[in-house]
Amino acid sequence: MPFRETLKSLRLPVIGSPLFIISNPDLVIAQCKAGIIGSFPALNAREKAGEPVMLEAWLQRITEELDRHNQANPDRPAAPFAVNQIVHRTNARLERDIEICVKWKVPVWITSLGARVEVNEAAHSVGGTVLHDVINNRFAKKAIEKGADGLIAVAAGAGGHAGTLSPFALVQEIRQWFDGPLVLSGAIARGDAVLAAEAMGADAAYIGSAFIATDEARAADAYKAMIVAGGADDIVYSDLFTGVWGNYLKPSIAAQGMDPDHLPTSDPSNMDFGSGSSKPKSWSEIWGSGQGIGAVKEVVPAAALVARLAGEYDAARARLLGAAPAGRGVAVDA
Q: What residue ranges in the chain does DSSP mark as E strands?
């Protein structure tokens, strides 16, 4: 099925973004069963020497559990899932992880921190769709030139590694030349924001931070509580912690004895995704988040969060249709 047709078949046009450390099979399965695309970073499936290959185990569990759900619920099938590959030169696992994703025929591939032709070709060899995340129009063009099928526009306010451009500007510039699948990321935590993303020209919304505060997420209780208690003013933009600019919770930075309003910049040569982490151990409790967390009021099951988003989305559509004045969009002679 073409990717846009897949999006139309979902309960909501939403991808649950891959959350570093936090996204796991429990969360992905819950998201897919609830009717949105769930995803996880391949590097979250960590392992030690002599242990089973964890990524293989995760993909087997997700695939088999979603298949069982679909057989039992043919009228309400689960959404497909996605795996995020960090396509950075320091990711020593990339080649092996690609082989495993090909073996399990991962339906949606999300690539980050670099665009690689061979990764796109591997995904296409098993019928997968590749979405590459970008923070500006220049990177967007490079990704499509190298064979990505679609783009994730990571605008200002997104959690984790984020850009600085307004979503209005970023989507507008991409849509001037690209008519393929486009997903918007950046402070989206309500259903009406999903509808707004569609109105701007995106095909779907990318939601991450709101899913940190769910039962299934592999996040510390203190992290979930900080998401619930926080708002846009509690977010700081820094490249100190991974060498790539991103958004983080100020209280988690202050808890490590640093001033979140006066952070130094990083040394890019220290960036290393080879082991699945680029943070020193002392920074393991510095937590990423987007600016949209003011909409998150409690920790709930992922299915309940999707239900809230769906209700807000439907209410926003009804509100707009009901409030639209007669003649809107029709030229009137002066």
A: 14-16, 38-41, 81-86, 108-112, 129-134, 150-154, 160-161, 182-185, 204-207, 235-238, 246-249
Closest by alpha carbon to 45, among 68, 18, 67? 18
Low-confidence ranges of the chain (pLDDT < 50): 275-278, 328-334
**How far apart, in whole angstroms, are the C-alpha atoms of residue 27 and residue 38?**
7
Q: Cα(74)–Cα(228) distance, rounded to whole angstroms?
A: 36
The sheet with strand 160-161 has its strands ordered as: 160-161, 246-249, 235-238
- Work out the angle at residue 230's Cα, subtended by the Cα atoms of residues 229 and 234, and round it to the nearest 5 degrees: 150
Ramachandran bin of 153, using left for φ above 0, alpha for ψ from -120 to 50, beta for the remaining angles:
beta
Q: What is the mean pLDDT of the chain?
A: 91
**Rounded distance, CA 144 to CA 137, Å?**
11
- Identify whether the C-beta of residue 76 lies closer than 8 Å to the C-beta of residue 66: no
301/307 Cα distance (integer angstroms): 10
Residue linked to tokens 């099928």: 149
Residues 135 and 158: beta-carbon distance below 8 Å: no
Domain 3-221+290-322 CATH superfamily: Aldolase class I (3.20.20.70)
160: its two tokens? 């984790």
Q: Where are the domains of the chain?
A: 3-221+290-322
Tokens of 10: 């979902």
Distance (Å, rounded) from C-alpha 149 to C-alpha 144?
7
Tens digit of pLDDT for each residue in 249-274? 999 999 999 999 999 987 555 555 55
Residue 80 corresponds to which amino acid? P
DSSP 8-state secondary structure symbol assigned to residue 78? P
Neighbours of 192 (CB within 10 A): 18
